[in-house]
Amino acid sequence: MSISQLEISTRAANVANGLPDPTKPFSSFMKFNKNDLNLTMDFIKAPAMTSLLKKEIFSLIKENMMEIYKKCPWGWNEKNKRLELFHRKARYIVVRHSSNKSLAAFVHFRFDIEESIEVLYLYEIQLEKSVRKKGLGRYLMSLMETIAFHYNMKSIVLTVLKSQENVMKFYFSLHYEIQSHSPDDEFYYILGKSKKTLELHNEQ
Ligand SMILES: CC(C)(COP(=O)(O)OP(=O)(O)OC[C@H]1O[C@@H](n2cnc3c(N)ncnc32)[C@H](O)[C@@H]1OP(=O)(O)O)[C@@H](O)C(=O)NCCC(=O)NCCS
C-alpha cells in the first residue's frame, strides 16, 4: 500500500514535534545583543513550564492583546486563551533581559498540518513595549524560518487580525503573503511564507 502525501506530511510534523529541543542546532542564535538590547533566549515546551513562567507569558499576552481581542468577534476569553497557550503541542522561545531576567518577549509555535502540508504554525509573537522596533521581531521571525526549514516544514503559517494594520505591515515587510485559503470575508488573514519565497528573497 502506498503512503499518501498526508501521511508523509503528518510523519514530518510528528518527527519535529518529538524533538526534545528543535533549537539545539541553533544555540549560537539564541541571543540578541543589538540596539541597546541584551537578551537571552530559551526553548521550552508548554508542558514543561512552571506556573510562574505561565503567569509571565499570560500577563504579556494580556497586556498586548486583550483590548484588541475585545474589539474583534473572538473576544477575550481567558480560559480558551490559556488552553491554546499551554497546549501539549505548544513550543516556545522565551526571551529574557540578560540583566534582570525579566520577560522581554516570546514566540509560541507548533509543528502542524495546514491544508494537508507540514508547516510551522506561528501562534504568537509577543514583545513587551520597550523592546519593539529594535529589530527583535524580525530576528525572531528569521529564527522561526531557520527552524521551520531545517526540519523540512514546507511553510510558515500565521493568522493576523485585519485591525492590526501595523502588524500586517511588519509581516509584509518580511515577505509574508496572504494564503489562497485565507477567508475573504473574515476579520483576519492567514499569512504564510514558503521555502521558495524565502530562497527568492535571500537571493536578492
Ligand atoms: C509586531 C511585532 C512582533 C514587531 O516586532 P518589532 O521588533 O517591533 O519589529 P522590528 O523592529 O523587527 O521591525 C521589522 C520591520 O517591521 C516593520 N514594522 C515593525 N513594527 C511596525 C509598525 N508598528 N508599523 C509599521 N511597520 C512596522 C518595519 O518595516 C520593520 O522594518 P525595518 O527593520 O526596515 O524598519 C511587535 O511589535 C509586537 O510584539 N507587537 C505586539 C504584539 C502583537 O501584536 N503581535 C502580533 C500578533 S499576530
TrEMBL record:
EC number from the UniProt entry: 2.3.1.257
Root EC class: transferase
Xref: Gene3D superfamilies: 3.40.630.30
Pfam short name (any one): Acetyltransf_1
Record's catalysed reaction(s): N-terminal L-seryl-[histone H4] + acetyl-CoA = N-terminal N(alpha)-acetyl-L-seryl-[histone H4] + CoA + H(+); N-terminal L-seryl-[histone H2A] + acetyl-CoA = N-terminal N(alpha)-acetyl-L-seryl-[histone H2A] + CoA + H(+)
Superkingdom of origin: Eukaryota
Gene Ontology CC terms, in alphabetical order: cytoplasm; nucleus
Keywords, sorted A to Z: Acyltransferase, Cytoplasm, Nucleus, Transferase
Molecular-function annotations in GO: histone H2A acetyltransferase activity; histone H4 acetyltransferase activity; protein N-terminal-serine acetyltransferase activity
InterPro entries attached to this UniProt entry: Acyl_CoA_acyltransferase, GNAT_dom, NAA40
Protein name: N-alpha-acetyltransferase 40
Organism: Sipha flava
